[in-house]
Automatic annotation (TrEMBL):
Keywords: Aminotransferase, Ethylene biosynthesis, Fruit ripening, Lyase, Pyridoxal phosphate, S-adenosyl-L-methionine, Transferase. Its EC number is 4.4.1.14. One of its GO terms (molecular function) is transaminase activity. Pathway: Alkene biosynthesis; ethylene biosynthesis via S-adenosyl-L-methionine; ethylene from S-adenosyl-L-methionine: step 1/2. This is 1-aminocyclopropane-1-carboxylate synthase. Belongs to the class-I pyridoxal-phosphate-dependent aminotransferase family. GO terms for biological process: ethylene biosynthetic process; fruit ripening. PANTHER family: 1-AMINOCYCLOPROPANE-1-CARBOXYLATE SYNTHASE 9, BIFUNCTIONAL ASPARTATE AMINOTRANSFERASE AND GLUTAMATE/ASPARTATE-PREPHENATE AMINOTRANSFERASE-RELATED. It catalyses: S-adenosyl-L-methionine = 1-aminocyclopropane-1-carboxylate + S-methyl-5'-thioadenosine + H(+). The lineage of its organism: Eukaryota, Viridiplantae, Streptophyta, Embryophyta, Tracheophyta.
Length: 479
Protein backbone atom coordinates (compact mmCIF):
# COMPACT_ATOMS: atom_id res chain seq x y z
CA UNK A 1 0.00 0.00 0.00
CA UNK A 2 3.09 2.28 -0.03
CA UNK A 3 4.65 4.14 -2.96
CA UNK A 4 7.45 2.58 -5.01
CA UNK A 5 9.70 5.47 -3.96
CA UNK A 6 9.34 4.55 -0.31
CA UNK A 7 9.71 0.82 -0.84
CA UNK A 8 12.64 0.90 -3.28
CA UNK A 9 16.09 -0.02 -1.98
CA UNK A 10 17.99 2.96 -3.39
CA UNK A 11 18.19 4.94 -0.14
CA UNK A 12 21.47 3.28 0.82
CA UNK A 13 20.53 2.77 4.46
CA UNK A 14 21.84 -0.80 4.34
CA UNK A 15 25.38 0.44 3.64
CA UNK A 16 28.05 -0.55 6.17
CA UNK A 17 28.47 3.20 6.75
CA UNK A 18 25.01 3.41 8.30
CA UNK A 19 25.13 -0.08 9.84
CA UNK A 20 28.17 0.97 11.86
CA UNK A 21 26.17 3.86 13.26
CA UNK A 22 23.40 1.47 14.28
CA UNK A 23 25.86 -0.72 16.17
CA UNK A 24 27.32 2.32 17.91
CA UNK A 25 23.86 3.47 19.02
CA UNK A 26 23.23 0.06 20.59
CA UNK A 27 26.40 0.27 22.67
CA UNK A 28 27.73 3.85 22.79
CA UNK A 29 30.97 4.57 24.63
CA UNK A 30 30.70 6.69 27.74
CA UNK A 31 33.75 7.49 29.82
CA UNK A 32 31.88 6.76 33.06
CA UNK A 33 28.69 4.86 32.26
CA UNK A 34 29.96 2.57 29.49
CA UNK A 35 33.79 2.63 29.22
CA UNK A 36 33.84 -0.57 27.13
CA UNK A 37 31.30 0.70 24.61
CA UNK A 38 31.89 1.49 20.94
CA UNK A 39 33.73 4.75 20.27
CA UNK A 40 32.13 6.74 17.45
CA UNK A 41 34.80 7.42 14.82
CA UNK A 42 32.39 7.36 11.90
CA UNK A 43 30.89 10.80 12.58
CA UNK A 44 32.45 13.78 10.76
CA UNK A 45 31.52 16.33 13.38
CA UNK A 46 33.66 19.21 14.63
CA UNK A 47 33.48 19.60 18.39
CA UNK A 48 37.02 20.94 18.88
CA UNK A 49 36.08 24.64 18.94
CA UNK A 50 32.64 24.52 20.47
CA UNK A 51 33.90 26.40 23.52
CA UNK A 52 34.62 29.44 21.32
CA UNK A 53 30.99 29.59 20.24
CA UNK A 54 29.75 29.13 23.79
CA UNK A 55 32.05 31.91 24.96
CA UNK A 56 30.68 34.25 22.28
CA UNK A 57 27.10 33.49 23.37
CA UNK A 58 27.96 34.25 26.98
CA UNK A 59 29.40 37.61 25.95
CA UNK A 60 26.45 38.37 23.65
CA UNK A 61 23.34 37.21 25.54
CA UNK A 62 21.01 39.49 23.56
CA UNK A 63 21.48 37.40 20.41
CA UNK A 64 20.37 34.14 22.02
CA UNK A 65 17.56 35.93 23.91
CA UNK A 66 16.31 37.43 20.61
CA UNK A 67 16.70 40.99 21.88
CA UNK A 68 17.96 43.86 19.81
CA UNK A 69 21.65 44.40 20.69
CA UNK A 70 22.24 46.39 23.88
CA UNK A 71 18.52 46.77 24.53
CA UNK A 72 15.80 44.87 26.35
CA UNK A 73 13.54 45.09 23.30
CA UNK A 74 12.49 41.61 22.22
CA UNK A 75 12.12 40.70 18.56
CA UNK A 76 10.89 37.19 19.33
CA UNK A 77 7.38 37.82 17.97
CA UNK A 78 8.80 39.32 14.79
CA UNK A 79 10.94 36.20 14.29
CA UNK A 80 8.26 33.70 15.28
CA UNK A 81 5.53 34.81 12.87
CA UNK A 82 5.20 33.47 9.31
CA UNK A 83 8.00 34.14 6.82
CA UNK A 84 8.09 33.08 3.19
CA UNK A 85 11.06 31.23 1.73
CA UNK A 86 12.91 34.47 0.96
CA UNK A 87 13.28 35.11 4.69
CA UNK A 88 12.81 38.44 6.37
CA UNK A 89 13.70 41.36 4.09
CA UNK A 90 16.23 42.60 6.64
CA UNK A 91 17.95 39.20 6.68
CA UNK A 92 17.63 38.72 2.94
CA UNK A 93 19.28 42.01 2.04
CA UNK A 94 21.24 43.22 5.03
CA UNK A 95 22.05 40.64 7.64
CA UNK A 96 22.31 36.89 7.28
CA UNK A 97 23.07 36.47 3.57
CA UNK A 98 25.58 39.30 3.60
CA UNK A 99 27.19 37.90 6.74
CA UNK A 100 27.32 34.43 5.21
CA UNK A 101 28.90 35.48 1.91
CA UNK A 102 31.43 37.61 3.81
CA UNK A 103 32.32 34.56 5.92
CA UNK A 104 32.69 32.45 2.77
CA UNK A 105 35.05 35.06 1.31
CA UNK A 106 37.04 35.23 4.54
CA UNK A 107 37.61 31.46 4.45
CA UNK A 108 39.05 31.89 0.95
CA UNK A 109 41.43 34.63 2.05
CA UNK A 110 39.17 37.30 0.53
CA UNK A 111 40.54 36.45 -2.92
CA UNK A 112 36.98 36.17 -4.25
CA UNK A 113 33.69 37.80 -3.36
CA UNK A 114 30.18 36.40 -3.45
CA UNK A 115 26.95 38.15 -4.44
CA UNK A 116 24.26 37.53 -1.79
CA UNK A 117 21.63 37.67 -4.56
CA UNK A 118 23.12 34.45 -5.97
CA UNK A 119 22.77 32.59 -2.67
CA UNK A 120 19.86 30.26 -1.82
CA UNK A 121 19.47 29.08 1.77
CA UNK A 122 18.71 25.41 2.42
CA UNK A 123 18.32 23.15 5.45
CA UNK A 124 21.90 21.90 5.34
CA UNK A 125 24.18 20.70 2.54
CA UNK A 126 22.09 17.54 2.10
CA UNK A 127 19.15 19.64 0.99
CA UNK A 128 21.40 21.85 -1.14
CA UNK A 129 22.85 18.93 -3.09
CA UNK A 130 19.46 17.32 -3.66
CA UNK A 131 17.95 20.64 -4.74
CA UNK A 132 20.70 21.08 -7.32
CA UNK A 133 20.02 17.59 -8.64
CA UNK A 134 16.35 18.49 -9.09
CA UNK A 135 17.39 21.71 -10.87
CA UNK A 136 20.02 20.24 -13.19
CA UNK A 137 19.12 16.59 -13.90
CA UNK A 138 16.12 14.64 -15.11
CA UNK A 139 15.43 11.14 -13.75
CA UNK A 140 17.94 8.82 -15.39
CA UNK A 141 20.53 11.55 -16.05
CA UNK A 142 23.95 11.06 -14.48
CA UNK A 143 26.54 12.97 -12.51
CA UNK A 144 30.16 11.83 -12.42
CA UNK A 145 31.76 11.71 -8.94
CA UNK A 146 35.41 10.90 -8.06
CA UNK A 147 35.94 7.90 -5.81
CA UNK A 148 36.07 7.49 -2.93
CA UNK A 149 33.09 9.70 -2.09
CA UNK A 150 30.77 10.44 0.83
CA UNK A 151 28.41 7.45 1.33
CA UNK A 152 25.42 9.72 1.87
CA UNK A 153 25.54 10.89 -1.76
CA UNK A 154 23.77 7.70 -2.81
CA UNK A 155 20.83 8.91 -0.73
CA UNK A 156 21.15 12.67 -1.21
CA UNK A 157 21.61 12.71 -4.98
CA UNK A 158 19.71 9.67 -6.20
CA UNK A 159 16.92 8.51 -3.92
CA UNK A 160 14.19 11.08 -4.58
CA UNK A 161 15.56 12.71 -7.75
CA UNK A 162 16.03 9.55 -9.83
CA UNK A 163 19.44 10.78 -10.95
CA UNK A 164 22.33 8.34 -11.35
CA UNK A 165 25.95 8.39 -10.16
CA UNK A 166 28.80 7.19 -12.34
CA UNK A 167 32.12 6.87 -10.47
CA UNK A 168 35.33 8.53 -11.62
CA UNK A 169 37.75 5.80 -10.57
CA UNK A 170 40.72 7.27 -8.69
CA UNK A 171 43.72 5.25 -7.50
CA UNK A 172 46.02 5.15 -4.48
CA UNK A 173 48.95 5.13 -6.91
CA UNK A 174 48.66 8.93 -7.21
CA UNK A 175 46.96 9.62 -3.87
CA UNK A 176 43.45 9.29 -5.35
CA UNK A 177 43.92 12.42 -7.49
CA UNK A 178 41.59 13.18 -10.40
CA UNK A 179 43.13 12.61 -13.83
CA UNK A 180 41.98 13.43 -17.35
CA UNK A 181 41.99 9.76 -18.29
CA UNK A 182 39.75 8.92 -15.30
CA UNK A 183 37.30 11.68 -16.30
CA UNK A 184 37.21 10.49 -19.91
CA UNK A 185 36.74 6.86 -18.87
CA UNK A 186 33.83 7.71 -16.53
CA UNK A 187 32.15 9.66 -19.33
CA UNK A 188 32.55 6.69 -21.67
CA UNK A 189 31.12 4.34 -19.04
CA UNK A 190 28.05 6.56 -18.71
CA UNK A 191 27.57 6.51 -22.47
CA UNK A 192 27.82 2.71 -22.49
CA UNK A 193 25.01 2.65 -19.92
CA UNK A 194 22.97 5.01 -22.13
CA UNK A 195 23.09 7.69 -19.44
CA UNK A 196 23.10 11.37 -20.30
CA UNK A 197 25.86 13.07 -18.29
CA UNK A 198 24.66 16.38 -16.87
CA UNK A 199 27.69 17.21 -14.77
CA UNK A 200 30.47 16.42 -12.34
CA UNK A 201 30.21 16.72 -8.56
CA UNK A 202 33.30 17.02 -6.38
CA UNK A 203 33.86 17.62 -2.68
CA UNK A 204 36.66 20.09 -2.06
CA UNK A 205 38.21 19.37 0.39
CA UNK A 206 37.40 15.72 -0.11
CA UNK A 207 35.27 13.64 2.18
CA UNK A 208 36.61 10.98 2.92
CA UNK A 209 40.19 11.70 1.75
CA UNK A 210 40.85 14.78 3.87
CA UNK A 211 42.69 16.46 0.97
CA UNK A 212 41.96 19.62 -0.97
CA UNK A 213 41.88 19.62 -4.76
CA UNK A 214 44.99 20.90 -6.49
CA UNK A 215 44.97 23.73 -9.03
CA UNK A 216 45.79 21.15 -11.70
CA UNK A 217 42.72 19.08 -10.81
CA UNK A 218 40.47 22.14 -10.75
CA UNK A 219 41.77 23.23 -14.16
CA UNK A 220 41.11 19.73 -15.49
CA UNK A 221 37.52 19.92 -14.24
CA UNK A 222 36.88 23.34 -15.77
CA UNK A 223 38.34 22.19 -19.08
CA UNK A 224 36.26 19.01 -18.96
CA UNK A 225 32.91 20.70 -18.32
CA UNK A 226 33.74 23.33 -20.94
CA UNK A 227 34.42 20.66 -23.57
CA UNK A 228 31.40 18.52 -22.66
CA UNK A 229 29.08 21.49 -22.06
CA UNK A 230 27.97 20.13 -18.67
CA UNK A 231 27.69 21.39 -15.08
CA UNK A 232 30.11 21.30 -12.16
CA UNK A 233 28.97 21.19 -8.53
CA UNK A 234 31.70 21.97 -6.02
CA UNK A 235 30.70 20.90 -2.52
CA UNK A 236 32.94 23.12 -0.36
CA UNK A 237 31.49 22.46 3.09
CA UNK A 238 34.97 21.64 4.49
CA UNK A 239 36.64 24.74 3.02
CA UNK A 240 37.30 26.28 6.45
CA UNK A 241 38.93 23.12 7.82
CA UNK A 242 42.12 23.30 5.70
CA UNK A 243 44.78 23.31 8.42
CA UNK A 244 48.06 22.90 6.50
CA UNK A 245 49.54 23.37 3.05
CA UNK A 246 48.55 23.33 0.31
CA UNK A 247 46.03 26.06 1.00
CA UNK A 248 42.43 25.81 -0.12
CA UNK A 249 41.61 26.82 -3.69
CA UNK A 250 37.93 27.37 -4.43
CA UNK A 251 36.48 26.77 -7.86
CA UNK A 252 35.59 30.48 -7.75
CA UNK A 253 39.30 31.32 -7.59
CA UNK A 254 39.89 29.31 -10.75
CA UNK A 255 37.03 30.97 -12.62
CA UNK A 256 38.26 34.40 -11.61
CA UNK A 257 41.93 33.76 -12.46
CA UNK A 258 40.99 32.32 -15.87
CA UNK A 259 38.73 35.29 -16.65
CA UNK A 260 35.70 33.04 -16.88
CA UNK A 261 33.40 35.10 -14.67
CA UNK A 262 30.19 36.16 -16.44
CA UNK A 263 30.63 33.43 -19.06
CA UNK A 264 28.48 30.43 -19.94
CA UNK A 265 31.03 28.20 -18.19
CA UNK A 266 30.67 30.21 -14.98
CA UNK A 267 26.88 29.80 -15.15
CA UNK A 268 27.33 26.03 -15.13
CA UNK A 269 29.44 26.07 -11.94
CA UNK A 270 27.56 25.83 -8.63
CA UNK A 271 28.87 25.80 -5.06
CA UNK A 272 27.35 24.03 -2.06
CA UNK A 273 28.21 25.37 1.37
CA UNK A 274 27.19 24.76 4.96
CA UNK A 275 28.11 25.84 8.48
CA UNK A 276 27.91 22.25 9.73
CA UNK A 277 31.65 21.51 9.46
CA UNK A 278 33.50 24.83 9.51
CA UNK A 279 31.50 26.25 12.41
CA UNK A 280 30.51 22.91 13.96
CA UNK A 281 26.76 23.54 13.81
CA UNK A 282 25.17 20.55 12.03
CA UNK A 283 22.09 20.71 14.25
CA UNK A 284 21.30 24.23 13.05
CA UNK A 285 20.78 22.91 9.48
CA UNK A 286 22.36 25.88 7.69
CA UNK A 287 23.21 25.19 4.08
CA UNK A 288 23.38 27.20 0.89
CA UNK A 289 23.59 27.00 -2.89
CA UNK A 290 25.65 29.59 -4.73
CA UNK A 291 25.05 29.84 -8.47
CA UNK A 292 25.74 32.42 -11.17
CA UNK A 293 22.77 31.15 -13.18
CA UNK A 294 19.66 33.21 -12.41
CA UNK A 295 17.40 30.33 -13.52
CA UNK A 296 19.02 27.95 -11.02
CA UNK A 297 18.77 30.56 -8.26
CA UNK A 298 15.10 31.15 -9.05
CA UNK A 299 14.22 27.45 -9.20
CA UNK A 300 16.23 26.58 -6.08
CA UNK A 301 14.57 29.43 -4.17
CA UNK A 302 11.14 28.02 -4.99
CA UNK A 303 12.25 24.54 -3.94
CA UNK A 304 13.78 25.82 -0.70
CA UNK A 305 10.28 26.15 0.74
CA UNK A 306 10.54 22.40 1.45
CA UNK A 307 13.59 22.91 3.66
CA UNK A 308 13.65 26.30 5.31
CA UNK A 309 16.05 27.67 7.90
CA UNK A 310 14.09 29.17 10.77
CA UNK A 311 14.10 32.95 11.16
CA UNK A 312 15.43 32.53 14.70
CA UNK A 313 18.42 30.57 13.44
CA UNK A 314 19.09 33.13 10.73
CA UNK A 315 19.01 35.93 13.25
CA UNK A 316 21.37 34.25 15.70
CA UNK A 317 23.87 33.30 13.00
CA UNK A 318 23.77 36.73 11.41
CA UNK A 319 24.86 38.16 14.77
CA UNK A 320 27.71 35.65 15.12
CA UNK A 321 28.99 35.95 11.55
CA UNK A 322 28.78 39.75 11.59
CA UNK A 323 31.34 39.82 14.40
CA UNK A 324 34.50 40.05 12.26
CA UNK A 325 36.83 39.83 15.23
CA UNK A 326 35.21 36.60 16.36
CA UNK A 327 35.18 34.93 12.92
CA UNK A 328 38.86 35.75 12.35
CA UNK A 329 39.83 34.33 15.74
CA UNK A 330 37.58 31.31 15.34
CA UNK A 331 38.88 30.28 11.91
CA UNK A 332 42.51 30.59 12.97
CA UNK A 333 42.11 28.74 16.27
CA UNK A 334 39.88 26.06 14.77
CA UNK A 335 42.50 25.29 12.10
CA UNK A 336 45.21 25.09 14.73
CA UNK A 337 43.20 22.63 16.82
CA UNK A 338 42.31 20.50 13.79
CA UNK A 339 45.96 20.28 12.78
CA UNK A 340 46.99 19.26 16.28
CA UNK A 341 44.29 16.60 16.53
CA UNK A 342 45.03 15.30 13.03
CA UNK A 343 48.71 14.87 13.92
CA UNK A 344 47.70 13.08 17.10
CA UNK A 345 45.69 10.51 15.18
CA UNK A 346 48.31 10.03 12.45
CA UNK A 347 51.14 9.52 14.96
CA UNK A 348 49.00 7.22 17.09
CA UNK A 349 48.26 5.01 14.11
CA UNK A 350 51.88 5.07 12.94
CA UNK A 351 52.95 3.56 16.27
CA UNK A 352 50.79 0.55 15.42
CA UNK A 353 52.22 0.26 11.91
CA UNK A 354 49.20 1.85 10.22
CA UNK A 355 49.69 4.71 7.78
CA UNK A 356 47.35 7.40 6.50
CA UNK A 357 47.03 9.23 3.20
CA UNK A 358 48.75 12.58 3.66
CA UNK A 359 45.92 15.02 4.36
CA UNK A 360 45.60 18.74 4.91
CA UNK A 361 41.90 19.23 5.69
CA UNK A 362 38.70 17.80 7.07
CA UNK A 363 37.68 16.06 10.27
CA UNK A 364 39.05 12.61 9.37
CA UNK A 365 41.94 10.61 7.95
CA UNK A 366 41.93 8.16 5.05
CA UNK A 367 43.62 5.17 6.67
CA UNK A 368 45.48 2.36 4.91
CA UNK A 369 44.82 -1.02 6.58
CA UNK A 370 45.46 -3.17 3.53
CA UNK A 371 48.23 -5.07 5.33
CA UNK A 372 45.72 -6.20 7.98
CA UNK A 373 43.33 -7.85 5.53
CA UNK A 374 42.97 -11.63 5.59
CA UNK A 375 42.48 -11.43 1.80
CA UNK A 376 42.87 -8.61 -0.70
CA UNK A 377 39.13 -8.46 -1.32
CA UNK A 378 36.15 -6.43 -0.19
CA UNK A 379 35.02 -9.50 1.73
CA UNK A 380 38.34 -9.29 3.59
CA UNK A 381 37.73 -5.59 4.22
CA UNK A 382 34.28 -6.18 5.72
CA UNK A 383 35.68 -9.01 7.84
CA UNK A 384 38.28 -6.62 9.27
CA UNK A 385 35.67 -3.89 9.72
CA UNK A 386 33.43 -6.20 11.73
CA UNK A 387 36.33 -7.10 14.02
CA UNK A 388 37.12 -3.42 14.56
CA UNK A 389 33.48 -2.63 15.38
CA UNK A 390 32.69 -5.63 17.59
CA UNK A 391 36.07 -6.66 19.04
CA UNK A 392 37.97 -3.36 19.17
CA UNK A 393 34.92 -1.21 19.85
CA UNK A 394 35.48 1.46 17.21
CA UNK A 395 33.00 2.52 14.55
CA UNK A 396 34.96 3.51 11.45
CA UNK A 397 33.79 3.63 7.83
CA UNK A 398 35.08 0.98 5.40
CA UNK A 399 36.28 2.20 2.02
CA UNK A 400 33.73 0.05 0.20
CA UNK A 401 30.96 2.18 1.74
CA UNK A 402 32.68 5.15 0.07
CA UNK A 403 32.84 3.29 -3.26
CA UNK A 404 36.62 3.03 -3.09
CA UNK A 405 37.91 0.73 -5.84
CA UNK A 406 40.64 -0.74 -3.61
CA UNK A 407 39.87 -2.84 -0.51
CA UNK A 408 41.56 -2.02 2.77
CA UNK A 409 41.04 1.74 3.16
CA UNK A 410 38.98 3.22 6.00
CA UNK A 411 37.77 6.69 7.00
CA UNK A 412 38.54 7.47 10.64
CA UNK A 413 37.15 10.66 12.25
CA UNK A 414 39.03 12.51 15.00
CA UNK A 415 37.23 15.80 15.74
CA UNK A 416 34.02 14.56 17.40
CA UNK A 417 35.57 13.35 20.66
CA UNK A 418 37.78 14.43 23.53
CA UNK A 419 41.55 14.01 23.45
CA UNK A 420 41.28 11.37 26.17
CA UNK A 421 38.81 9.34 24.10
CA UNK A 422 41.09 9.50 21.06
CA UNK A 423 44.00 8.26 23.18
CA UNK A 424 41.85 5.34 24.36
CA UNK A 425 40.87 4.57 20.76
CA UNK A 426 44.55 4.43 19.75
CA UNK A 427 45.27 2.11 22.68
CA UNK A 428 42.50 -0.20 21.49
CA UNK A 429 43.92 -0.19 17.95
CA UNK A 430 47.42 -1.00 19.21
CA UNK A 431 46.15 -3.91 21.33
CA UNK A 432 44.22 -5.25 18.35
CA UNK A 433 47.15 -4.99 15.92
CA UNK A 434 49.52 -6.56 18.46
CA UNK A 435 47.12 -9.46 19.03
CA UNK A 436 46.80 -9.95 15.27
CA UNK A 437 50.58 -10.02 14.92
CA UNK A 438 50.85 -12.55 17.75
CA UNK A 439 48.20 -14.79 16.18
CA UNK A 440 49.89 -14.54 12.79
CA UNK A 441 53.26 -15.48 14.31
CA UNK A 442 51.71 -18.43 16.11
CA UNK A 443 49.96 -19.47 12.91
CA UNK A 444 53.18 -19.26 10.89
CA UNK A 445 55.04 -21.20 13.58
CA UNK A 446 52.37 -23.92 13.58
CA UNK A 447 52.45 -24.07 9.78
CA UNK A 448 56.24 -24.50 9.91
CA UNK A 449 55.91 -27.32 12.45
CA UNK A 450 53.26 -29.03 10.35
CA UNK A 451 55.38 -28.67 7.26
CA UNK A 452 58.42 -30.15 9.01
CA UNK A 453 56.27 -32.96 10.40
CA UNK A 454 54.96 -33.84 6.97
CA UNK A 455 58.45 -33.66 5.53
CA UNK A 456 59.80 -35.96 8.29
CA UNK A 457 57.07 -38.53 7.73
CA UNK A 458 57.87 -38.65 4.05
CA UNK A 459 61.59 -39.44 4.57
CA UNK A 460 62.72 -43.05 3.82
CA UNK A 461 63.66 -45.38 6.70
CA UNK A 462 67.40 -45.39 5.89
CA UNK A 463 67.52 -41.67 6.77
CA UNK A 464 66.33 -42.44 10.30
CA UNK A 465 68.88 -45.27 10.59
CA UNK A 466 71.65 -42.96 9.47
CA UNK A 467 70.52 -40.29 11.89
CA UNK A 468 70.42 -42.82 14.79
CA UNK A 469 73.94 -44.06 13.93
CA UNK A 470 75.19 -40.45 13.81
CA UNK A 471 73.82 -39.71 17.29
CA UNK A 472 75.52 -42.85 18.70
CA UNK A 473 78.90 -41.82 17.26
CA UNK A 474 78.52 -38.22 18.46
CA UNK A 475 77.57 -39.42 21.94
CA UNK A 476 80.66 -41.67 22.13
CA UNK A 477 82.92 -38.78 21.23
CA UNK A 478 81.39 -36.60 23.95
CA UNK A 479 81.84 -39.28 26.57
Amino acid sequence: MLSTKVTCNSHGQDSSYFLGWEEYEKNPFDEVKNPNGIIQMGLAENQLSFDLLESWLQKNPDAAAFNKPNTNQSIFKELALFQDYHGLPAFKNLRFLQALVRFMSEIRGNTVTFDPNNLVLTAGATSANETLMFCLANPGDAFLIPTPYYPGFDRDLKWRTGAEIVPIQCSSLNGFRITKSALDEAYKQAEKQNLKVKGVLVTNPSNPLGTSLSLHELDLLVNFISTKNIHLISDEIYSGTVFSSPSFISIMDVLKNRNLMNTDVCKRVHIVYSLSKDLGLPGFRIGAIYSNDDRVVSAATKMSSFGLISSQTQYLLSEILSDKTFTKTYLSENRRRLKQRHEMLVKGLQKTGIRCLQGNAGLFCWVDMRHLLSSDTFEGELELWEKIVYEVGLNISPGSSCHCSEPGWFRVCFANMSEETLILAMQRVKSFVDSMAKKNNQSRHQQLLNRNSRRTKSLPKWVFSLSFHHREVSGADER
